[in-house]
Amino acid sequence: xxxxxxxxxxxxxxxxxxxxxxxxxxxxxxxxxxxxxxxxxxxxxxxxxxxxxxxxxxxxxxxxxxxxxxxxxxxxxxxxxxxxxxxxxxxxxxxxxxxxxxxxxxxxxxxxxxxxxxxxxxxxxxxxxxxxxxxxxxxxxxxxxxxxxxxxxxxxxxxxxxxxxxxxxxxxxxxxxxxxxxxxxxxxxxxxxxxxxxxxxxxxxxxxxxxxxxxxxxxxxxxxxxxxxxxxxxxxxxxxxxxxxxxxxxxxxxxxxxxxxxxxxxxxxxxxxxxxxxxxxxxxxxxxxxxxxxxxxxxxxxxxxxxxxxxxxxxxxxxxxxxxxxxxxxxxxxxxxxxxxxxxxxxxxxxxxxxxxxxxxxxxxxxxxxxxxxxxxxxxxxxxxxxxxxxxxxxxxxxxxxxxxxxxxxxxxxxxxxxxxxxxxxxxxxxxxxxxxxxxxxxxxxx
Length: 447
Prior knowledge:
Elements: H1 5-20, E1 24-25, E2 43-45, E3 57-58, E4 72-78, E5 86-93, E6 96-101, E7 125-128, H2 131-141, E8 151-152, H3 168-177, E9 190-192, H4 195-199, E10 212-214, E11 220-221, E12 231-232, E13 257-259, E14 263-265, E15 269-277, E16 281-283, E17 286-293, E18 296-297, E19 302-303, E20 313-314, E21 320-321, E22 329-338, E23 342-344, E24 350-357, E25 361-382, E26 385-386, E27 391-393, E28 399-408, E29 412-435, E30 442-446
Parallel strand pairs: 9-10, 11-12, 13-15, 14-16, 15-17, 18-20, 19-21
Antiparallel strand pairs: 1-8, 2-7, 3-6, 4-5, 4-7, 5-6, 22-29, 23-29, 24-29, 24-30, 25-26, 25-27, 25-28, 25-29
């Protein structure tokens, strides 16, 4: 066996270099199978006998032929050639070998086998053996075991064959150089965009690469608390936060907008599209090209473009410009009629009829009175204030009375108040007459 040690060591060295293309091993902590030392020639004997379960043994001497001594992890053939021959591995320090692995199998050079463990007498021969290292190297190179330490090239080599083992540097360079830039049709490398890059129209970066820019979650948020260039993200409810809009900016709306809840416009506003509101809307100075609303009250001045207003606006003719509404002029043109008969036995005046006039000017008012069992009195009121002449009758049939001209303002309430002298007072045919434009200007409230 000792004559085979040197050739075997040469073979093992060549095997390692052929398999891994390395010229030396750099020791670093790792996990794998440990390789024992393998000096060319070493012979000694046991200083004291050992049992089959002993975990330490003492050598008579520790001297390598030609100089030096053993240390570290080594494997020995004990009582070679005898019936109780055994392969033992352990850590050598001086003449003490500790941490023994006993009865190593002759198949893999690593596993302990109980049947291969023996007791050995004092003076038993001990020789260095390369059997375990050969078996372990074979297992490593066959992929049946792992390397304890990392393998490293002495200098950087470029692989030339498909079967060559590459270095980390080559792999790192390959990860960048070997991939194309991404595009709409090609998957590949991208460059993370800066905030300025996100806001530009450039597809590719302008820095160290020409790859397409990719947005980063760093610059995406649903609630921006710091102003800058960010990508808007909806909140959990699926809607964008109002913080994304600078509400102090002036906006120009060119399309149709429908407001179904209360709208409060406190600044000057120009609406060039259709403004449609079915809820309460409060506006400051507002220019409207086309306005549709259910009910409008104008408290400020109004400037029109020559078109008639439609719907049911409450207007004051004194504060309108360029709106073709001339106001009301008392005439015999009937505008509102409340003909239902009402009666009262009240001694003081009470309101029995009421009509709202949605225009400013003068109106003519007619109503009829009769009594039952006494006399009846009636008078025209506006907004609860008497403005007409008191009329009275003792007739049991209706007598018509006329107020030729009563002044009213837009939204005023024209009313008939009645009381009895004695008995019961009746009224009907309360009617308002005037001439105006084509506005819907009068609404009967109580008939």
